[in-house]
Design brief:
Layout (H helix, E strand, L loop, with lengths): L13 E4 L7 H19 L11 E8 L7 H14 L11 E6 H6 L3 E3 L10 E7 L5 H8 L3 E5 H6 L2
Antiparallel strand pairs: 1-2, 1-3, 2-5, 3-6, 4-5
Helix pairs in contact: 1-4
């Protein structure tokens, strides 16, 4: 793991992911991983074509705090995502997907941090590998997520 990776979330952490959804989630996830690679390279002042690939997908993850049930954790993660700039009220973010961090690790993926200024403690990326992910790899990641769940309903939970 690199210096920007930080500690991964606990295996029992809830992992929240906003779209892609739609007709072809694998295609959209591959696109997002490629876009994150290019954005990361630019933020580091590197040429995306000349730097080590970093194909990653953005997620929000944390364990339940004292007294929190699943709904409360997800509500908190939705709020963290909103504070981080995810437009949770947008139609494209009307649903979110949930997984368990341990299941993601068991599917042979790792978590890392982007280490950008102001990155929330709950923000992670799932590293999908040093090469642009193929359909099989994306399908393996999608298989551990359940959803979509209604974002607005998640925001209203007590």
């Amino acid at each position: 793991m690199g210096a920007d990776d930080g500690d991964p979330p606990s295996r029992d952490a809830y992992v929240l992911r906003f779209p892609p959804g739609g007709d072809d989630p694998p295609r959209k996830l591959r696109y997002e991983a490629r876009a994150n690679h290019k954005r990361s390279a630019r933020e580091l002042g590197e040429d995306p074509a000349a730097c080590e690939p970093r194909y990653r997908l953005s997620v929000f993850a944390d364990v339940a705090r004292d007294g929190e049930d699943e709904a409360a954790v997800l509500q908190r993660l939705i709020q963290v995502a909103a504070n981080a700039g995810i437009r949770v009220a947008d139609a494209k973010n009307a649903g979110f997907w949930v997984a368990n961090a341990g299941e993601i690790v068991d599917a042979n993926f790792t978590f890392c941090k982007d280490a950008y200024p102001g990155e929330p403690a709950e923000h992670y990326c799932v590293d999908v590998g040093p090469e642009e992910p193929d359909n099989e790899r994306i399908q393996r990641l999608l298989a551990v997520f359940e959803g979509p769940r209604d974002t607005e309903e998640g925001r209203r939970q007590p």
